[in-house]
Predict the 3D structure of the following.
Amino acid sequence: MNGDFAEAAQDYARIERVIALIRTRTDAQPELAELAAAAGLSEGYLQGLFNRWAGIRPKDLLQVSTLAALQARSGGKNQQALLALAPDTGLKGAGRLHDLFVNLEACSPGDYASGGATIGLSHGVADTPFGPAFIAWSKRGLSALEFINPSQTDTTETARERLRAEWPEAKLIMDSPGAAAWPGRIFPPAGGGPERVLSLQVRGTTFQVQVWRALLRIPPGATTSYGALAAALGKKGGARAVGGAVGANPVAWLIPCHRVLRGDGAVGGYRWGVDRKLAMLAWEAGNNREES
C-alpha cells in the first residue's frame, strides 16, 4: 500500500504541470495531443499516468476547469453544483455522507488553554495522491494534514513550526513509519470518504470549529460558496469571516475546504495551491462518475 502512494505522489508531481496548463488554457480546450506534447509525453503515457493516479482522464480535469470558468463568467447566477455530479450543493441530505466518515472533536478547554501540555503529537511526512503531506496525530486523532511544496516555502520544517505554534506545550514526536501508515486510511482507492470512521482532534476557536464541522457536510463531488456556507451557519453577510476559518483548516482533504468556491463559481484560491485544489475536485468528479 505504501508503495502505491509513493507512486501516486510521483505521478502527481508530473500531473500538476498538466493541471497548470489546463487551467491556463481552458478557453482553448486543448486536445490530449497538445497536453501530451507540452508535458513531453506520449498521449498513451499521459492517459496511463492519469489512470494510475486516480482512475480519471485528462478530459475529466478539463471538464472541471471548464465548468469553473463558465460559472465564473456567469457571475455565479447559476447556483447548481459546479461539477453537475453531486446530488446536493448545500449542507443537508447527502451532505451527511462525509460527516459520517469523519468524527471531528475540538480539544478540551483545558488542553486549549494549556497549549496541549498533556498531549503527545507524533508527526512525519508521507506520500499521498496529491503529493507529500505533513501529518500529525495523537492518541485522540489526527490533528494536522498539510501538503508540502518545497518550492513554495511549504517545507516539512515550516509545517512542524506551525504545529509547534498551534500546540506550543505539546510533546512532538517524530514517527515516519507511523505517518506512512496514514494515507491508506485517509485516501480510499475509489475516492469519497475513508473506509472507516476517522477521528480528528483540532485546536481552533469556537467559530472555526463550527465552520470546519459544516465543511464535513459537503459530500464528495459537490461544492458550495463562502456566502452559502455563511448563510447555512446563520452568518448571512459573513462570507469573509467564514473564508478566514476555511483557510485556517489544519486537516486538508478530510475537512474538505477544497469544496468551497468563490461566490462567482470560480475555483478561487487554496492554501496548498490552486492546481492542487483543481486536482482534488477532478479526482472526486471522476470517481463519483465511475460509482454512479
Residues 14 and 39 are 8 Å apart (CA to CA).
